[in-house]
TrEMBL record:
Listed InterPro entries: O-antigen_ligase-rel_domated, WaaL-like
Record-level GO cellular component terms: membrane
Transmembrane residue ranges: 65-90, 96-113, 120-137, 164-184, 238-257, 341-364, 371-388
Membrane disposition: Multi-pass membrane protein
Keywords: Membrane, Transmembrane, Transmembrane helix
Annotated protein name in UniProt: O-antigen ligase-related domain-containing protein
Source taxon at top rank: Bacteria
Intracellular or extracellular location(s): Membrane
Amino acid sequence: MRIGGVLMTRFTKYGLIFLLIYFPIRQLLAEIYPVTRFAGDIVILALFAQTAIERKRLLVTRYRFILYFFLFLLVGSVSALLTGVIPIAILMQIRAFLIPALLLFVACEMLITKKDIQHLLWISFFMGCALSIHGLIEKLSHRTLLVPETWQSWELAAVNSDRIYGLVANPNVLAVYLMIVFFLTLYLKKLAANYSVLLNIGLVLLAGTILLTYSRGTLIAFGLALLILSLMKKKWNYLVQTALFFSLAIALVYFPIDQITENTGKETSDRFVDMFSEKRIQQSASGGRVFVVKKGVQIFIDHPVVGTGFGTYGSAATVSFESPIYDRYDIPSSMYADNQYMQILVETGIIGTLFMLLFIYQLAKRTRHSYVFFLMLVGLIGSTFYSMLEDKTFTLYFYLAIGFALNQRRLFHE
């Protein structure tokens, strides 16, 4: 019995290692080998199945608070069927929300040592540095080196052409991932003081690459979350370190790369200073985030109780499959919400949104005294700018971190 338990524990650990390596490069792998697109989902389902078999009684009694999340999924699914969404689009949306959440059960119930946690942090650090180096090569080569040909031929808007898209093929997703790795590395410094020089170099590299993604929403979300957490705990160490490393990154990475690429920085750097300009607001009103909110409010007023259902407003499912409400509300088929709150409100109405808020409240209540609460704050703030629950790299770390926080009593020293 003990041998079986050891084998299962190793399977879980190796599975998590695979996920930490796989998801940051998932888009690249799927581009080269389309069959790998669902590899992460398969591994997560296998890990959850193992956990469910071993701890089936506890899954029923210990995690009753997650019932709110499943009720949220039920409301969105039933509402979608009533709206006329095709089943495959509904399943696609459920998959995006549900499968990453299963990692919460896995992380909370697995046997893991602090040494294992340290290994996972090192893997995240090296993956983050690898993606940062690739991003700088992409920037310096003007997207001609180490970038798939199909990605090179993308027709990018002028304001986005100088942003680093990276191996995740999205500057905002890349920025969120590198930010998570940045703060995990700050924590790793406490556990691996002998490698502080290497980690400091990596932190400057990570910060510089984040700046070159020009992801304003990411900087706002993580910056505000860090400020709030610092005020709550009355500890300023992480805030000071973050300011220091980003200052060094501006001098050692951002400006040198900008000069080498012979870019005056005007068009791209202005992303940080003109976010509230009249021109930017007009652009948002016609097809950006303000447009998403205005249309969302209009739809919500028409369908306030249970919404229009999954796969109807600004999700990955609506990009892949036609939404039955877009023609009625004059919404372009390519629109992506980039606002998790509005997407949930429109698709699940008051009832579904209430269930999701109750689920988030339960998670926050259980993690508010932990540094994991930082990721909760990031998710809450970042959801104003992005569809955070559809970002696989964010949800990977989000649910793992919460699971480990709830699993602290099971950590032991070897």
